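Researcher: Let's continue the batch. This sequence belongs to Tetratricopeptide repeat protein, and it's 758 residues. Same format as the previous ones, please.
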Amino acid sequence: MDVDIWAWVGDTQRQLHEAGNTGLAMVIGDVPAQALEGRYAQLDVLAPAIAQQAENLQMPWLEFYARYWHLIGRIGDRAQGAVAIADAEALVEFTRREDVRECPAAPGAVVALALAQANADGPGYAAERLAALSALEVEPGSLAFASVAEHYVAALLDAGRVEEAVSHAETAVAALGGAGREASWELGAASARALLAAGRAEDALTALDAAAGFKPDDPVAKGYREGVLRALVLATLDRVQESVDALPDLDVVGEHPRAWVEWSYAVRALAGSAQITNTWQLGRVLKQWIDYFAMMGGYRARVELALVAGQLAVARQGIWQARLLADLAESAAGELRNSGDVAERIAALRTAADEATALPAPGPEAELVGYFDAADGFNADPERWVGWLTPLSGHDVEATRRHTTTLGFLGYPARGADIYWTMLVESGDIESADPQDSLYLSSLLIEARQDERLEQLAERLPTAQRHMALGRLHTARERWEQAAAEGEAAVAAGGGIDAARLWSAAVQQLGDNAKGAGILRDLLDSEEIEQQDLWRMVVMATAAEDWETVRLGAARIGIPLQSSEGPIEEEMGLVRIILPAPDGSQRQVLSVRTGPATARLAIPQPPGMEYNAGDLVVFEPQLLEPIPENAEEQEKFVPPFAAVSMLRPGGYTSWFFDGAAPSQADWTEFNEVMAERGWPMWVYSDDNYTVTHPTTGEPLPGVFGWIAVPPDISPVEIDALLDDATERWVHPLAWLDLAKAVDVEVERHERITKEYGL
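Model: Same format as before. Here are the structure tokens for Tetratricopeptide repeat protein:
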């Protein structure tokens, strides 16, 4: 964005504060960090909400800001392609409005559209990108210049105009220097890529070294992106060990889709070395990445990864996988606007697969199932087993089960489904097939997202199996009403405990906890009921305040309870309850466990939260963190659980206090006063928080936090108590919001706030 974003955000926040929109003012500053740091769950909630509020307030620049950063969060690190193009086009159109056109950040929309198009099919959109970016006419003094140049270089490379890309990058860097500005790291990296594409790997390395000190536009991503590009350049130079050392580990790049294709290129270049192990695990990961880009409309990335994965499969003699990947690349190429030499590369992959020699099976075909079952599940290579079992699959039922489920595990459920379908459905044997095989086939179809095929299968299954297959499909697609109906029908048809679990889970999603608990309670005498069923029943019964069922479940689980009837209100230790925050993040709130699945929040929360101290919540009694092994750490461990729902609000109201920290004796006495009244208090400031001495200007240790009071306590009573409790302190404490609420000494609290810089 061509603007000092932080200065602009600060000015906008002040305007919002002055207009009384404090909540909106507080959250807008965090949006860019959410986009760049990968906090997408927060971003996907917060950014659209800000955009909507900005539209309602008729603040178009703020609306653009929220929409832009939300889009960057999608097309940047997440590398969304075709699925984001329409939104990017809409943002460009938005910048053409009269009240948005002059926004200094408006060029960012054109760059964002170019990036979305590049994510979808770089070469296919190259001409459009070049035309749009060149029309911007940004000057070297503009903060947008480096970004526009970077993406223009990328478009030139995708257009096959390599020498022009090299020249443009060099010219842009020089122009920035002439304007007294430095290139971004991203522009330096684009220059290195252009030099690499031109066959000048040594120069590319020099350019990358020169860019190392440039300030990145995306500082969070710079480390791993620089490592991937450096590894690719060094591998091209055959400096293998240096390349391996530079290459980020899979667990680093695995969360960053925009690095996947370049990382795979580097791995392919290094796969023949002893330092990089070409394994089935690598093949499985690459297939997951291919599937990701299929969902995100990353057509070019999907083809490139399929070809790289196929070449690596050939190298490790995974011939069946190489052939499937060639088929996948051929299918995906149909989405490309400009396929270039893809057909020739696919043909080369097929030839390589045909010429490769398959690894011999560990024994005779008739004994392979036994060998499979005896194999070490930890060290066995599932990719090889798929190849060895292929001749038997579709004919021998036991071999087919192992072969197709292994195919699904490796990321090829559609191929496994095809084999099962031919063997069971096309042969006409599905009506008499073992229910286990019907389950395997339906699971493969669901995983392969072949919903119509599954519906065809279901029509030919016995009643209970039919309803279970459809119920699993609806559950996987989160169609809860249909899932509940199919689960109920499956139970009625004798589907057993699996049908009851499916029905109960769907009913819970629909909000009918009482019914969901009742479905499982009817199975308490079943020998098949498991601990997890009992806990699910307890959670749902708690949410429905069916305390009799809660007690039945607790007794079966082995949780002793003191009371025998009515609501369960006991002290069962401290827990951490994980709750959502308005910005999409999560908050951990120290709480007192009052029952098997209930806890009372003990920490005051700022206004704007949907919960506060005193609230009774239902939680999922599954630990979110493992219990420490160290005995000393176990003593300090407070178990964390995810909140499910609010059972009963406590009605507490929080009031903010702020000021210079008192003496230890005064603070202890203050805490005792709050505790005597049962008013939860929590200090949110840390040891680094300071305020300003009103006369000397020196920093003083500060303290701020919230006090929560029950609904029967009036604001006047709180104000009076705080006044009495702090009147002898050396420095006064301020509670401005409370003072305004009771209209008592408002000017004094405003003066304290101003004098101490609160």
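Researcher: Any comment?
Model: The longest strand covers residues 699-709.
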